[in-house]
From TrEMBL:
One term under GO cellular component: membrane
UniProt-listed SMART domains: DUF1751 (SM01160)
Official protein name in the record: Transmembrane protein 115
Region described as Disordered: 333-372
Composition-biased stretches (Pro residues): 363-372
Claim: Cell cycle is one of the keywords in the record: no
InterPro entries: Rhomboid-like_sf, TMEM115/Pdh1/Rbl19
Subcellular location: Membrane
Length: 372
């Protein structure tokens, strides 16, 4: 109840921030966010958690609670998870939905969550088969949008793989390494008891399922399927040192799926075509929409870099101008004696002025007066 009081106390501020985040988004995005908030309020009841979440033992026959695969995703028991879910869904509505469309976005949402429920259940069935402990079947409750968050990170990696997130002493963190990094962090937090074990399982399931869908099955507007670009291969999720090992592991299963017709083979040919504008080169796995998307991203990054450079140049010029003005003020503040002729009145010539020259030599001599 203490958490509920904290939530109600901060409700006006959260409503203001969420309204700014969810502005100009589709009704589906707003519906998902509202349902997640309602699910968090209902999660204070243990009976509701048992009914709405996926329990591996009850998802199988004879119980066969398939309806829980459609309700587990909006049930969160921690406030920080609700905030992360809403922020992620809102960013998807502004970044991914304009590129894919509302129907494709909802299709991606449903397929990912439905697949995460079954794949996570399969993980716990394997653990139960290895250990024989029934607690992995009936005491585990799978709930939340962790799998969908992983799927979103994979989609962002596909759209903007080299976008810089943060610079660290160990190197640059980009969208390319985000899914695997969060999975490692989730495993570490689970090992020290700071996170539930279902979170890394759901994150890993969402990463694998979303990559399979985006790599082989997603249909594009030009009639093609998937994204066979080299920078979106499965080994590209791992560091460069481990990529040969990963390719050796996933290579045989991929070839088997290709022979069964479930996956597309990786193209290895470069097509050359003559056009009025010149020679057109088609690289393997690079579709026209991908090239246009990456061109827009490159132009945006170049524009930001040029604006940053011009701002630095303007600040440097402004600093130089300020320093020059300070020097001029210092020079004009010094007193410089000047000789002026006396004013004349009514055409009367003024008497000549006299200038006294003083010799500063070692031998003092009388001053010399000279007519000027």
């Amino acid at each position: 109840m203490a958490a509920l009081r904290v939530f109600s106390r901060n409700l006006p501020y959260l409503r203001q921030q969420f309204a700014a985040l969810l502005g100009n988004t589709s009704p589906s995005v707003k519906f998902i966010c509202v349902v997640v908030v309602i699910g968090y309020i209902l999660s204070f009841s243990d009976d509701v958690v048992n009914v709405l979440s996926v329990t591996p033992g009850y998802l199988l026959p004879p119980s066969f609670q398939l309806w829980s695969t459609f309700t587990f995703w909006f049930l969160e028991i921690h406030l920080w998870e609700v905030i992360i879910d809403i922020v992620t869904v809102g960013l998807c509505g502004k970044l991914i939905e304009p590129l894919w469309g509302q129907m494709e976005m909802m299709k991606f949402f449903i397929l990912t969550n439905f697949g995460v429920a079954f794949l996570t259940t399969f993980y716990y069935l394997v653990i139960f088969a290895c250990t024989g402990q029934t607690s992995y079947l009936f005491d585990i409750h799978v709930h939340g949008l962790a799998g969908y968050l992983a799927a979103v990170s994979v989609a962002v990696k596909q759209i903007m793989p080299d976008h810089l997130l943060i610079k660290t002493p160990l190197g640059k963190l980009t969208n390319r390494s985000l899914p695997l990094l969060i999975l490692i962090v989730a495993i570490i937090l689970w090992a020290i008891g700071a996170l539930e074990g279902t979170y890394p399982c759901m994150w890993g399931s969402g990463t694998i399922l979303s990559w399979i869908y985006l790599r082989f099955w997603q249909r594009h507007t030009n009639g093609t399927r998937g994204d066979m670009a080299d920078n979106f291969s499965f080994d590209n999720f791992f560091p460069t040192v481990l990529q040969p090992v990963v390719r050796a592991i996933v290579g045989p299963p991929h070839r088997c799926l290709v022979r069964l017709g479930l996956c597309s083979p990786s193209p290895r040919r470069v097509h050359l075509a003559l056009s009025p504008r010149g020679v057109t080169i088609s690289m393997p796995g690079v579709e026209p929409q991908d090239m246009e998307r990456r061109r827009q991203i490159a132009l945006k990054a170049l524009s930001e870099r040029l604006s940053k450079t011009s701002e630095q140049t303007r600040q440097k010029n402004l600093s130089t101008k300020v320093n020059m003005d300070a020097v001029r003020k210092m020079q004009t503040s010094q007193v410089i004696p000047q000789f002026t002729e006396p004013e004349t009145s009514k055409g009367i010539q003024a008497p000549p002025t006299e200038a006294t020259l003083v010799d500063l030599g070692p031998d003092p001599t009388p001053p010399i007066t000279k007519q000027s």
